[in-house]
């Protein structure tokens, strides 16, 4: 899954790896990072789990819970929801982030050499142990919420392998990488939220959430592309075919903007089909500030990528919640 703003400058290969990428002498679990103070073991593990990436997954689960029609303020303080926060944040999403770091360690030596593995702060043995423990805990937490969610967690972990691990490594394959990440961040947690709280499950009852989360997955495929601007040099060096690496920054920014707007406008159209014009208007209105910011993004993708995602994403996720309340309104 995508990292968040790294050092864009290529770093020298560390002595944790041999000249050909082979594992060299083992470094201790905790040691001084380059150009920074040493981290405690707890802080190091938290950095390995990338907390900033938990937020969209937690939000998607919340939208699914709201869509179910059975989630309210009382449920928000319940053990099920607290366990779901633990699952969708540090456990399942954290596991996928650790897997990404594990399989991308050579790429991170170029794009972000201070990450725990290429920086030598975490050995491959310790990383493997953490990933194994977190995977088991994630599946157990998912099962405790609902047996189907336990299965969902397994699917998410498999997706993380497909995204990062050779020989498949979908992140090398242009559209496939962004799509599988968006599915893992949108559809899987959204439907998990529905499953956790909907009293009775059927394909008909889940169809509105499947459609809306699918459309926002299309939009999020565009936002994933914006995350790729930060690592163009490293991606090109190792043959990862992201949209910016293949088409260049400005064309990729245009494609990303079209996808972002299209997914949300289609979601607004679906609200109209459900007979909910005010919800449709709300979703459509939230696209406007994103559209305005996209002019600056296209003019200067590399300098605007972080700012765009930091501001415009708030309107996109607000639209997700509007749709969730719209689906809730259609429940009998």
Question: What do these coordinates show?
Answer:
With 332 residues, the chain is mostly helical. Helix 2 packs across helix 8. It has helices spanning 41-49, 54-67, 73-76, 79-103, 105-111, 124-145, 147-164, 175-197, 203-227, 232-238, 243-247, 249-273, 277-299, 301-330. The chain has 2 domains: 40-199, Orthogonal Bundle (Tetracycline Repressor, domain 2), CATH 1.10.357.140; 202-332, Up-down Bundle (Four Helix Bundle (Hemerythrin (Met), subunit A)).
List the helices and strands and how they pair.
Blueprint: H1 41-49, H2 54-67, H3 73-76, H4 79-103, H5 105-111, H6 124-145, H7 147-164, H8 175-197, H9 203-227, H10 232-238, H11 243-247, H12 249-273, H13 277-299, H14 301-330
Helix pairs in contact: 2-4, 2-8, 2-14, 4-6, 4-7, 5-10, 6-7, 7-8, 8-9, 9-12, 9-14, 12-13, 12-14, 13-14
């Amino acid at each position: 899954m995508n990292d968040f703003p790294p050092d864009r400058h290529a770093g020298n290969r560390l002595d944790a790896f041999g000249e050909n990428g082979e594992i060299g002498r083992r470094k201790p679990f905790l040691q001084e990072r380059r150009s920074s103070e040493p981290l405690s073991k707890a802080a190091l593990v938290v950095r390995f789990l990338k907390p900033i990436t938990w937020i969209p997954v937690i939000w998607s689960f919340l939208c699914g819970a709201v869509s179910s029609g059975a989630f309210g303020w009382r449920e928000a303080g319940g053990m099920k929801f607290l366990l779901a926060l633990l699952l969708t944040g540090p456990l399942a999403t954290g596991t996928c982030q650790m897997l990404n770091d594990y399989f991308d360690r050579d790429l991170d030596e170029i794009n972000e050499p201070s990450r725990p593995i290429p920086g030598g702060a975490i050995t491959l043995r310790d990383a493997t142990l953490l990933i194994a423990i977190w995977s088991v805990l994630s599946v157990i937490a998912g099962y405790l919420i609902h047996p189907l969610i336990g299965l969902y967690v397994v699917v998410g972990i498999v997706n993380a392998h497909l995204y990062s691990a050779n020989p498949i490594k979908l992140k090398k394959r242009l559209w496939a990488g962004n799509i599988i990440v968006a599915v893992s961040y949108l559809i899987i947690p959204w439907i998990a939220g529905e499953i956790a709280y909907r009293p009775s499950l059927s394909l008909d009852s889940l169809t509105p959430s499947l459609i809306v989360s699918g459309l926002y997955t299309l939009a999020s495929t565009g936002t994933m592309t914006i995350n790729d601007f930060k690592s163009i040099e490293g991606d090109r060096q190792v043959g990862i075919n992201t949209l910016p690496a293949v088409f260049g920054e400005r064309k990729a920014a245009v494609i990303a903007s079209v996808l972002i707007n299209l997914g949300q406008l289609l979601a607004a159209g679906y609200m109209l089909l459900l007979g909910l014009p005010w919800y449709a208007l709300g979703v459509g209105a939230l696209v406007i500030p994103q559209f305005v910011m996209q002019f600056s993004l296209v003019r200067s993708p590399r300098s605007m990528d972080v700012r765009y995602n930091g501001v415009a994403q708030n309107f996109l996720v607000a639209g997700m919640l509007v749709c969730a309340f719209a689906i809730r309104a259609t429940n009998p």
